UniProtKB/TrEMBL annotation:
It comes from Gluconacetobacter liquefaciens (Acetobacter liquefaciens). This is Diaminopimelate decarboxylase. The gene is lysA. The lineage of its organism: Bacteria, Pseudomonadati, Pseudomonadota, Alphaproteobacteria, Acetobacterales. Residues 77-303 form the Orn/DAP/Arg decarboxylase 2 N-terminal domain. The modification N6-(pyridoxal phosphate)lysine is found at residue 84. One of its GO terms (molecular function) is pyridoxal phosphate binding. It catalyses: meso-2,6-diaminopimelate + H(+) = L-lysine + CO2. The keyword Lyase applies. Its cofactor is pyridoxal 5'-phosphate. The keyword Lyase applies. SUPFAM superfamilies: Alanine racemase C-terminal domain-like, PLP-binding barrel. Substrate binds at residues 300, 338, 342, 371, 399. PROSITE patterns: ODR_DC_2_1, ODR_DC_2_2. It comes from the Bacteria.
């Protein structure tokens, strides 16, 4: 097959390519790999591995780029960071200081965002299955708005609000039936997905919401998926929302807000990342003349490239009969789940400058968890790495630590924040005893065997 590359992995970016595309990372002869000028070896020496490292400067710079692109297009949307991408209090605090609000999908995330100091009025509450308790919490806090995702939820929210004398500011999240062109597990705007209200029903439901007690309909929300790098799906979705706004206004109903959701993609391998200027252009072109307040809910684009996962090669296991060797890391799918869940590609860099110059070979990079899915890369071309070598798994600042589990008795990894040359542990490595600290053995279970 002529159009088939001999091996996809051979086209993977090299160490030099990965560094060139990430100005916050650099390789120094003595210090090795640095993030925002802090040597990762110093962090690993002090804290051990696996450890998540987040760059505050990169995070701020990303926020300013996005905000600047919107302003450059004459837009001033409120920016609500999607907390599910990275829920650390320090991350939320840094973004809040830049002016960001939050997009939350549970009562737990709402309380986290409040604990980080995000004003309730700048928080948006999304999600397909909000409980009555979560709705009541959001209303008691004074939430900015709640994105309602079904007719059933609309009735429940009306009941919760009216029975306590609150007025719930809402948008209806519409499902525009647009294919975001992304991985099937992160697309949300197709009619077959569980998210949002069917487009054809949205206008009638908006009208109905205006007549229900306890609700203040403000407008519409849309969020078509994640890791979107093409603008056509955005344009299509925003155009449908704009039509909807005009249709309900024609029925005499006010609309003052359109929430454009998140989803802007980043460069993991060699994708051209979603440009904030292009997103701003799409919003302006489709929604710019509607005279509404605008909101966006970026997660991955702000936090993804600001973080990495620092790990160490436990051992190198020879492959059979010329097959690639296995590099078994001390990080695993319980730490970084994206490769197992979405077949996601993450760049891998050696931390030592000497390792970075060794001859390149194809290896399978895996974790020690007892699942075949516990794999970070198959047939990846990397400089030769031996037992003890440290590596950085790149672009893990979004949907990284938040998705971790303790599967296989593996405590949650430590987290470190780097900023302006200094660094601090922002989450202690989870003590192993805490894995069973909440377990209770009923007294009718056999006592431990002698010597146990
Ligand atoms: C997940 C999510 C986002 C953020 O998505 P990203 O791809 O991380 O930008 C925004 N809004 C809603 C409703 C979400 O569920």
């Amino acid at each position: 097959m002529l159009d088939c590359p001999s091996s996809p992995a051979e086209q993977d970016p090299t160490v030099a390519d990965l560094l060139a595309a990430r100005p916050h990372l650099s390789m120094h002869a003595l210090d090795g790999l640095t993030l925002e000028d802090v040597p990762l070896n110093a962090i690993a020496d002090a804290v051990g591995t696996p450890t998540w490292v987040m760059g505050a400067g990169t995070l701020r710079a990303r926020y300013r780029l996005l905000d600047g692109a919107m302003r450059g297009a004459g837009l001033a949307p409120s920016i609500h960071f999607a907390v599910k991408a990275n829920d650390h209090l320090a991350v939320l605090r840094i973004l809040a200081a830049e002016g960001a609000g939050a997009d939350v999908v549970s009562g737990g995330e709402l309380r986290r965002a409040r604990a980080a100091g995000v004003p309730a009025g700048r928080i948006v509450f999304s999600g397909v299955g909000k409980t009555r308790e979560e709705m009541a919490l959001a209303l008691a806090e004074g939430i900015g708005h709640i994105a309602v995702e079904s007719a059933e939820e609309l009735d429940i929210l009306s009941d919760v609000a009216a029975s306590s004398g609150w007025v719930a500011p809402i948008t209806l999240r519409v499902n525009p039936d647009v294919d975001a062109g992304t991985h099937e597990k992160i697309t949300t705007g197709l009619s077959t997905n569980k998210f949002g209200i069917a487009y054809a029903r949205a206008a009638a439901l908006y009208e109905r919401s205006a007549s229900l007690p306890g609700l203040k309909p403000l407008g519409f929300s849309v969020h078509i998926g994640s890791q979107i790098v093409a603008m056509a799906p955005y344009r299509a979705a925003f155009a449908r929302v704009a039509d909807l706004v005009r249709a309900v206004r024609a029925r005499g109903l006010p609309v003052s807000l359109v929430d454009c959701g998140g989803g802007l993609g980043i460069t993991y391998r060699d994708e051209v990342e979603g440009a904030p200027e292009a997103l701003a252009g799409a919003i302006r072109a489709e929604l710019g003349d509607l005279d509404v307040r605008l909101a966006i809910e970026p997660g991955r684009w702000l936090a993804g490239s600001a973080g990495l996962l620092l790990s160490r090669v436990i051992l190198r296991k020879a492959g059979e009969d010329g097959l690639p060797s296995f590099l078994i890391l001390d990080a695993a799918m319980n730490d970084l789940m994206r490769p197992s869940l979405y077949e996601a590609w993450h760049g891998i860099l050696p931390v030592s400058a000497r390792d970075a110059t060794r001859p390149v070979e194809a290896v399978n990079v895996v974790g020690p968890v007892c699942e075949s899915a516990d794999s970070f890369a198959d047939g990846r071309f990397l400089p030769r790495l031996d037992e003890g070598a440290r590596v950085a798994l790149l672009d893990t600042g979004a949907y990284g630590a938040v998705m971790s589990s303790t599967y296989n008795g593996r405590p949650l990894a430590a987290q470190v924040l780097v900023d302006g040359g200094r660094w601090s542990v922002i989450r202690e490595r989870q003590p192993v005893e805490s894995l069973w600290a909440a377990d209770r053995i009923p007294d009718w279970v056999m006592p431990a065997p002698a010597g146990g």
